[in-house]
Amino acid sequence: MALRVALCGNPNVGKTSLFNALTGMRQYVANWAGVTVEVKEGIRNWQGVKIDFVDLPGTYSLSSFSMDEKIAREYLLYKTPDILLVIVDALSMRQGLYLFLEAAELDTKTILVVNAVDEARKQGIHIDRQELAKHTGVPVVLTSAVTGEGIDDLLDTILRISSSDKKKLQFIFDEEVEKMIKALESEFISRPSLQSFPARWLAIKYLEGDPQTVALIGQTQVVAGSLREKIAEGRYKHIDLILKEVLKTSGEVMTMSDALDHVLTHKYIGIPIFLTLMYMTFTFAFQTIQPICDGIEALFTFLSDLARRSIANNTISSLIADGIISGVGSILVFVPNIFALFLILGIMEESGYLPRAAFVVDRIMYRLKLSGRSFMSFLLGFGCTVPAIMSTRGISDQRERTITVLSVPFISCSARLPVYLLIASVFFEKEKGMVVFSVYLLSVIVALMSAVLLNKILFKGEPSFLVLELPRYRMPKVKNLLLYVWYRGKHFLMKAGTIIFLASVILWILSYFPASGDPTKSFASEIGRALSVLLKPLGFDWRLSTALIFGTAAKEVIVSTLSMLFGFGKVESLGSTLTSFYDPVTVLSFLVFAMAYIPCFATLGSISSEIGKRYLIISVIYSLAVAYLLALLVRLLGGWLV
Amino acid sequence: MSLSEVPVGLSAKVKSIPDSLVGSRLISLGFIPGTYVKVVRDAPLGDPRVYLVMDKLITLRNDDAVQIEVVLDNDLVILSSAQEGTYTIVELFGGVGFQRKMHRMDLQKGKTVQIIGPMTVKTQRGVFKLGFGIASRILLRRV
Question: How many inter-chain contacts (A to B, CB under 8 Å) are there?
Answer without folding.
Answer: 115
